[in-house]
Amino acid sequence: MMRFIQLSFLFVLVSITTICWAQVTNQQVSKVKVPEKAPEFAAIPVDDLTSKERDILIKIQYLLRAVSSLKRFSGAVIIAKEGKPLYKFTAGFANLDYMVPNSLTTSYNTCAVTETFTALAIMQLAEQGIIDLNAPISTYLPELPAEVGSKLTIHNLLTHTSGLPDYYQSVNYMQNFLNIKSNTDMVNLITSENAPCNTNAHQFTNSGYVFLGSIIDRMSGKDYQSYIVDNIFKPAKMLNTAPHFWHQVVDNKAVGYKFDNSLEAAASPDFWGAFPFGADGVYSTTEDLLRFCNALDSTSLLSNEYKKIMYTDYTVGSSEAQKMTFGYAYGWKTRKIGKKNVLFQGGYIDGLSVQLRRYIDDKYTVIVCSNYNVNIAADLADRIEQTLYDESYFIPSEPTAFVVNDLIQREGLVTVINNFDKMLEDNRTKLENVWTLNSLGNEYMKDNNWQASLEILKLNSQRFPKEPIVWDSLGEYYFRKKDYKKSAEYFIKKLEVSPNDKRAKGMISFMQKTQ
What we know:
With 515 residues, this protein is an alpha+beta fold.
């Protein structure tokens, strides 16, 4: 799915970062209409956090500060527990033409997260006995060709086991989207493709959720857009969430951007339409997405019985390879971290991307909305997840050190040391001072990663041999390893560049007495 061609322009991304610990942040400028105020969230007091949770949030702060200052993320993030925000963060600009900063009330195209709204609407109608999840869709859309309407069920549409061609990949759609005015027009275009249905495997297709939108149109007594507003968004207090057609103006909307190596920004280069017919076209905010999750946790939108049906993994037997990565529920994907259950959904459209993740057993919710580059939200959500569940996951406190560490994790220590300058250049990063590698080496030391610590500290001494701190850190390294002879050698080197250094003299004297 792509978006409308807009003006390219030169831009240096200045990271505007707002970090709130359990507190709401609103960033607005006069050019932007202030959204209607929604109920405030009850925050979790810092004193109520466990020691482990505090350590996790410090790591997440390092992570988000690094990706924003390195211009790798622009958007908004919320991490919550039991429906209450633990951490909120914003960075970058929602609109570069007017220099509007991203905020927690910036409106993002929710992409495939729209599926969760559509699936919920279907489940509400099923709970009311209006539709049967296992009935042929011709029951509700009798005008469909028999090879489609009689073969496919609502279950097939919900689980992406329809085999319907994805209309976004259709040349016919690209050429005719300006003529589409209704769900019926879209359904007719999809069925005109004459592709065979396949109910034996999962194949992602936006088309199935357009069919579901048409069924909601037909059976609810309301058009799809009105139904989800009245029966999902309003009850959930999602006052800044609404469906929009591609040509409509959206208040406080985040524009998607792509960047080349020189950091020139261009808005989404192509646009083939977006319609709120069931698959996409819903705009929401990070705070409203949290409200949605909280409403789902209650029974205000759906009973527990039908939520259980909606969250079940329906991955078909022939998709075991797929199931190793994730499974298909209704409007959600499913997987496990160990034995713990995760429900998630997300997607991307050029520079826009979104991730909504719910960690059922631990009651964590992670929401990431980004308007910078391709599917940044998924990558960042993966890193946040790793921070939550992998105690060994290491995040340096300094942004450039974050890049170096990331390269080491991906490419290996030896490769990075041997190709250091080239790899930093390829990642649009520069080593500007002695403190980057010094902090990284010392953090590795504290993390008991002795080999990486030594190699990084040695590399730093080669780059900045006249800086006393490089020899001090190497001396400290060998002191901790109880190699006092080697430690003394490095403190002597420190004295060569800083003759009056009291610490070096003191360390040398101590080690001489120890020996």
